[in-house]
TrEMBL record:
<dbReference type="InterPro" id="IPR055190">
    <property type="entry name" value="ATP-synt_VA_C"/>
</dbReference>
<keyword id="KW-0406">Ion transport</keyword>
<protein>
    <submittedName>
        <fullName>F-type H+-transporting ATPase subunit beta</fullName>
    </submittedName>
</protein>
<keyword id="KW-0067">ATP-binding</keyword>
<keyword id="KW-0813">Transport</keyword>
<keyword id="KW-0139">CF(1)</keyword>
<comment type="similarity">
    <text>Belongs to the ATPase alpha/beta chains family.</text>
</comment>
<dbReference type="InterPro" id="IPR027417">
    <property type="entry name" value="P-loop_NTPase"/>
</dbReference>
<keyword id="KW-0066">ATP synthesis</keyword>
<feature type="domain" description="ATP synthase A/B type C-terminal">
    <location>
        <begin position="247"/>
        <end position="312"/>
    </location>
</feature>
<keyword id="KW-0472">Membrane</keyword>
<dbReference type="InterPro" id="IPR050053">
    <property type="entry name" value="ATPase_alpha/beta_chains"/>
</dbReference>
<dbReference type="InterPro" id="IPR024034">
    <property type="entry name" value="ATPase_F1/V1_b/a_C"/>
</dbReference>
<keyword id="KW-1278">Translocase</keyword>
<keyword id="KW-0547">Nucleotide-binding</keyword>
<dbReference type="Pfam" id="PF22919">
    <property type="entry name" value="ATP-synt_VA_C"/>
</dbReference>
Length: 348
C-alpha cells in the first residue's frame, strides 16, 4: 500500500465542482481535499470513499489511484514551503488567504526565484482593474488576457522550457482553467505548474479550495497578526508530493517532528496568552521554547520586500532548511535567542 496517491488531474477534469459532488454522495469535502493533497494517505482511507470518488469521476479504481509514480518537487528556497508543503512540478497549487495576508508578496518572491531558474512565467490577467497586481504584472514574463491566448503561448513554447502559470479564482469558477488543463494534458504537455490565487479572499471559506489540488498553501491569520511572514500555516498546508515523491527519510521524519512540536507549541501558547508563562508545566517549558525558536526560524526576509522591510532577502535550500530544523528540534540551537532567529536565512 506504499506510494499510492489519487489521480488529482483526472478528478479535476471529471468532477469540477467537487465540493457539491462529494456532499451528494455522503462524503465530507474536507476529507476529499485532504486525500487530494496527501494529508490523508490513500492507503489509510476508507474503501467506500475511494469507490464514491471513482463513481463521481466515472472511472475505475485503477484509474483513480496512481501506483508507484513519482512526483518531482520544485525547490522554492522558501523554508516553510519546502519543509511542510513542497511544490509539485506540473501540478496545481492553491493559495488560501484573505486580502492583506501576504499572498501576493509570496507570489512575487516565487516569480523572482523561478525566473532565476529559467522558468517561463505567465499570468492570466483577471477581468477588471486590480492595482494590487501591479508588481506581479511587472514580474511575469508574459501577461495573457484569455484562456485561448494562454493555450497558444504554452503550445508555442518549446517542451524543454518549464512554465509557471498564475490565474485568479474567477477563471476557476467558470471552469476555463480545467478546460485549459485538459487541453494541455490531451496534447501531452505536462511541464506547466499552475498557481491559483483568490484576490477576493472568499476561498478561505470553501471546503475544497479551488477543487482538487496537488499542493495547498494556507495562510495563518495569527501569524499575520504577529508579523511572522510568510505566515504559511505549518499544519494546514500540505502537498501530494509527500505521497508521490520518494522523499528522503530525513525530510519526512524532520517534517513530522516539526509538525508535532508546532502543534503542541500552539496549544501551550494559547494557554500562555490567557494565564501567563507560569501556567506551563516545567516539563513542557523545553517544548514551548523550541516551538518559539522554530516558529521564528520559519520566518524569512524576501528579496521583493527589501524596499519595505529594509532587510536583505535570503534564499535557503532544502538541505540547509532540514539541517537547521533538526538542530532546533534536537536542542542544538537552545542557546540562541528567539529574536535572533526572526527573519534570518540559515542558522549562523
Amino acid at each position: 500500500m506504499d506510494n499510492l496517491r489519487l489521480n488529482v488531474s483526472l478528478l479535476r477534469r471529471r468532477v469540477p465542482n467537487l465540493t457539491s459532488a462529494a456532499r451528494s454522495v455522503g462524503l465530507r469535502p474536507a476529507t476529499v481535499s485532504n486525500l487530494c493533497t496527501g494529508k490523508i494517505s490513500v492507503g489509510r482511507s476508507e474503501v467506500r470513499t475511494i469507490v464514491a470518488l471513482a463513481t463521481l469521476a466515472k472511472c475505475s479504481i485503477d484509474e483513480l489511484i496512481i501506483r508507484g509514480d513519482t512526483v518531482e518537487m520544485i525547490e522554492t528556497n522558501i523554508k516553510v514551503l519546502d519543509l511542510f508543503a513542497p511544490l509539485a512540478k506540473g501540478g496545481t497549487v492553491g493559495l488560501v488567504a484573505r486580502p492583506g495576508m501576504g499572498q501576493l508578496v509570496l507570489l512575487g518572491e516565487l516569480l523572482r526565484n523561478f525566473k532565476k531558474e529559467d522558468y517561463l512565467t505567465i499570468l492570466l490577467k483577471p477581468d477588471g482593474e486590480h492595482p494590487e497586481l501591479k508588481d506581479i504584472l511587472q514580474a511575469v514574463d508574459i501577461v495573457s488576457y484569455t484562456i485561448d491566448e494562454t493555450y497558444r503561448i504554452v503550445t508555442d513554447t518549446e517542451q524543454s522550457k518549464d512554465i509557471i502559470f498564475v490565474a485568479d479564482r474567477n477563471h476557476v469558477l467558470t471552469g476555463h482553467i480545467f478546460d485549459l488543463q485538459e487541453q494541455l494534458e490531451n496534447d501531452g504537455i505536462h511541464h506547466v505548474t499552475t498557481f491559483l490565487v483568490d484576490l477576493k479572499g472568499t476561498v478561505v471559506d470553501d471546503d475544497i479550495p479551488y477543487g482538487p489540488l496537488e499542493t495547498l498553501w494556507h495562510f495563518d491569520a495569527d501569524l499575520v497578526a504577529r508579523h511572522k511572514f510568510p505566515a504559511i500555516h505549518p499544519l494546514y498546508s500540505t502537498s501530494s508530493v509527500l505521497e508521490g515523491l520518494h522523499l528522503e527519510d530525513q525530510h519526512l521524519s524532520i517534517q513530522q517532528q516539526a509538525k508535532k512540536l508546532l502543534r503542541r507549541y500552539r496549544e501551550l501558547r494559547s494557554l500562555v496568552n490567557v494565564k501567563g508563562m507560569s501556567s506551563i508545566p516545567t516539563s513542557e517549558l523545553q517544548t514551548y521554547h523550541r516551538g518559539e525558536r522554530l516558529e521564528a526560524y520559519l520566518t524569512q526576509p524576501f528579496f521583493v520586500a527589501k524596499a519595505y522591510s529594509g532587510k536583505q532577502g535570503e534564499a535557503v535550500n532544502l538541505k540547509d532548511t532540514l539541517k537547521d530544523v533538526r538542530a532546533i528540534l534536537t536542542g542544538s540551537a537552545d542557546a540562541k535567542q528567539v529574536e535572533s532567529l526572526n527573519y534570518t536565512g540559515r542558522l549562523k
